[in-house]
Design brief:
Blueprint (H helix, E strand, L loop, with lengths): L1 E5 L9 E7 L6 E2 L4 E6 L4 E5 L4 E6 L6 E3 L3 E7 L16 H8 L6 H7 L6 H10 L17 H13 L31 H16 L2 E9 L1 H18 L6 H14 L6 E3 L2 E3 L6 E3 L1 E3 L2 E3 L2 E2 L7 H16 L13 E5 L18 E5 L3 E7 L2 E15 L5 H16 L2 H5 L2
Parallel strand pairs: 12-16, 16-17
Antiparallel strand pairs: 1-8, 2-4, 2-7, 3-6, 4-5, 6-8, 9-19, 10-11, 12-15, 13-14, 17-19, 18-19
Helix pairs in contact: 3-4, 7-8, 7-9
């Protein structure tokens, strides 16, 4: 009996998504609640699970298509095992893949279909055939160990540097001719729904808000010393590593109390002030930057903040963050320093009015007590909506953070 696979409810006000990738192909065995497809929404990736166990049947949509909540995207032959399938799995493909199924398979397609348990996306499959690499020997860096195009290109580059070896008879060379180093190529890749949303929101922010950025620098000596002294005890007691973000989130919460306009937003002709601090933290995910929210961060300890951030980071890599976790937020902190950024002008996250940019720590010469000494310094950047926040308030906010970081005792006595 064929059972429909439908698009699940995606969250409040979200009615459609893009089918990012099929995780199961027609003819493959699936277990109940096993992911069979990945959907991309405006904020996160959502997996579609199999309603029953059986054989993957016909696919109703192709990768990249837009689907609505409740739409049927595939069917599963309930209760069947691979041996029960009377026809090859390629015969169950949708109209999108029927032309490919009718054509004779290319020489390199056999190891891709038969030996590699991980489903390859069209772009990855094309790269595998073009570069003549064996996907079974590639360690995937994508979600759930899946192979990405970058993995294929890295394997091809490594293959070029190694001494050529005789090609086994079972693995014929790809039919595509070799490409000389002088050739140039272009590839068009459709933007993911998440990337489209990021682009739209950032442009809207620039068009709507009067964005201005103010800079300061901070001496990280005291925080580095405190972290080095207590990191082992901290991890032993709380089960999480002590990082710098915990200090900066606490310092930001204190500064937001001192300068409430940075924690406010504009709605129509009114200013909405918040007596709480929900801090959005920018986290890198496979499909782009996401900003989950630490709720009531002003009431949390450094340990609770570090645990929350660590959990966000781990689940962002696996695409497990929910849309509710990214709603709201009164202020954002973005740490470009983990990627080596020295200085930047971050863009605010509407409807918020401010974002704090952190950068890399490097030793620079500074003057202390009349002497030039080397100190671990970091540039801080506050981008803010000048319609609401004046320059004096922006500078006051950054100085409050600078004072708290350079003298962490202030964090304990709320000074």
């Amino acid at each position: 009996m064929a059972v429909d696979v439908v698009v699940p409810t995606l969250g409040e006000s979200i009615t459609e998504a893009t089918l990012g990738q099929w995780l199961k192909q027609p003819g493959e065995a699936v277990k109940a609640d096993e992911p069979v497809a990945s959907l991309e929404t405006d904020k996160v990736s959502v997996e579609v699970n199999a309603p029953v166990a059986g054989l993957m049947g016909q696919l109703a949509v192709a990768e990249g298509d837009t689907v609505n909540v409740g739409a049927v995207i595939a069917q599963i032959e309930a209760g069947k095992a691979p041996a029960d399938a009377a026809t090859p799995k390629v015969e169950n493909r949708t109209a999108v893949g029927q032309a490919e199924a009718a054509a004779p398979p290319e020489p390199a397609a056999a190891p891709v279909e038969d030996n590699d348990p991980v489903t390859l996306s069209p772009a990855v499959r094309r790269a595998v055939l073009e570069h003549g690499v064996d996907p079974s020997r590639i360690h995937g860096s994508g979600k759930d160990g899946r192979i990405t195009k970058d993995d294929v290109l890295a394997a091809a580059k490594l293959k070029e540097t190694e001494k050529p070896a005789p090609v086994p008879a079972s693995a014929p060379a790809p039919a595509a001719p070799s490409v000389s180093s002088g050739d140039r190529h272009e590839e068009r890749v459709r933007m993911t729904r998440l990337r489209q949303t990021i682009a739209s929101r950032l442009k809207d922010a620039q068009n709507t808000a009067a964005i201005l950025t103010t800079f300061n620098d901070v001496d990280m000596t005291a925080v580095i010393a405190a972290r080095a002294k207590y990191k082992d005890l901290f991890e032993k007691k709380h089960g999480v590593k002590l990082g710098f973000m915990g200090f900066f989130v606490k310092a930001a919460c204190m500064a937001l109390k001192d300068v409430p306009s940075v924690n406010a937003k504009i709605e129509g002709d009114e200013i909405v002030y918040h007596d709480y601090a929900d801090i959005s933290v920018a986290v890198s995910a496979p499909n782009g930057l996401v900003v989950p929210v630490i709720r009531n961060a002003d009431q949390l300890s450094v340990a609770a903040i570090e645990k929350t951030i660590g959990d966000f980071g781990a689940r962002a890599k696996d695409g497990k963050l929910s849309m509710d976790e990214m709603k709201g937020g009164t202020f954002t902190i973005s740490n470009g320093g983990v990627f080596g950024s020295l200085m930047s002008t971050p863009i605010i996250n509407p409807p918020q009015s401010g974002v704090l940019g952190l950068h890399r720590i490097e030793e620079r010469p500074v003057v202390r007590d009349g002497q030039i000494v080397a100190r671990p310094m970091m540039y801080l950047a506050l981008s803010y909506d000048h319609r609401l926040i004046d320059g004096r308030e922006a500078v006051t906010f950054l100085v409050a953070i600078k004072n708290a970081i350079e003298d962490p005792t202030r964090l304990l006595i709320d000074l």
